Amino acid sequence: MFSYKINDDLQLAIPRLTDGAALYDLIDRNRDNLSYYLPWVDHVHDAQAEIDAIKNDLARFAEGKALDLLIWYHGRLAGKISLNSIEAMYSEADIGYFLGKEFRGRGIMTMAARAIIDIAFEEYGLHRISLQCAADNLPSNNVAKRLGMNFEGCHKGRLILKDGYHDSNEYAVLAEEWAAVKGNS
């Protein structure tokens, strides 16, 4: 497995087709709490859907358009984190992620997000990373705050969630800010 070690407990890895069943199982076990903020979850009905998603992720990676990584905690698949929509022209990307309920409250997502931002700036040479989350999604807002990202504003009715449109908070950090921000977070 090609991976990026964060510490002895946590690593990020490029998904393999053989991870499809485990990824489906994680989504299926967490369907009730994931589907509210991630409406695509309702369209994932079997492991083949995740194998197909991994193929798409790998194709977008090969094209330089995205970086989707699985989060492994103590050897168990815990979630997924991505640099979505890598825009080479503007040298920016946004972060997306999810984490299984049983893995929450351990700082895993903050560490994974810090690592993928490091990758974005150091390996991809990007200039700006943003994170968008529902205004009422306190855990995701807290991840952005713990990372020291700048709050850029609230976009009214920007996100469509399971029960309709929601306001979206947007956070961002620039490459030239990251070293100082990372040192303080």
Q: What's the helix and strand layout?
A:
Layout: E1 3-5, E2 10-13, H1 20-29, H2 31-34, H3 47-62, E3 67-73, E4 76-87, E5 92-99, H4 108-122, E6 128-134, H5 138-146, E7 150-161, E8 164-174, H6 175-184
Helix pairs in contact: 1-3
Question: Please, could you describe this protein's structure?
Answer:
This is GNAT family N-acetyltransferase. Residues 12-176 form the N-acetyltransferase domain. InterPro entries: Acyl_CoA_acyltransferase (IPR016181), GNAT_dom (IPR000182), Ribosomal_N-acetyltransferase (IPR051908). It is a single chain. By secondary structure, the protein is an alpha+beta fold. It has one domain (3-184): Aminopeptidase. The chain contains 6 helices and 8 strands, in the order E-E-H-H-H-E-E-E-H-E-H-E-E-H. An 8-stranded mixed sheet has the order 1-2-3-4-5-6-8-7, sandwiched between helices. It is globular. The mean pLDDT is 94.
Give a short overview.
Residues 12-176 form the N-acetyltransferase domain. This protein has 185 residues and is α+β, with helices and mostly antiparallel strands. The protein has six helices and eight strands, in the order E-E-H-H-H-E-E-E-H-E-H-E-E-H.
- Give the terminus-to-terminus CA distance: 30 Å
Q: In CATH terms, what is the architecture?
A: 3-Layer(aba) Sandwich
Order of helices and strands: EEHHHEEEHEHEEH
Radius of gyration, in Å, reads 16 Å
| Share of helix, binned | 25-40%
The biggest sheet, with number of strands, parallel, antiparallel or mixed sense and barrel status, is: 8 strands, mixed
- Judged by helices, strands and strand pairing, the structural class is alpha+beta
Compute the number of structural domains: 1
What is the top-level CATH class? Alpha Beta
How many strands in all?
A: 8
Q: How many alpha or pi helices?
A: 6
Provide the spatial order of strands within the biggest beta sheet.
Answer: 1-2-3-4-5-6-8-7
The amount of beta strand, in percent, is 25-35%
Q: Give the overall pLDDT as a whole number.
A: 94
CATH topology label: Aminopeptidase
Q: In CATH, what is the homologous superfamily?
A: Gcn5-related N-acetyltransferase (GNAT)
| Low-pLDDT residue intervals, each spanning 5 or more residues | none
User: What's the quaternary structure here?
Assistant: single chain
What is the global morphology? Answer: globular
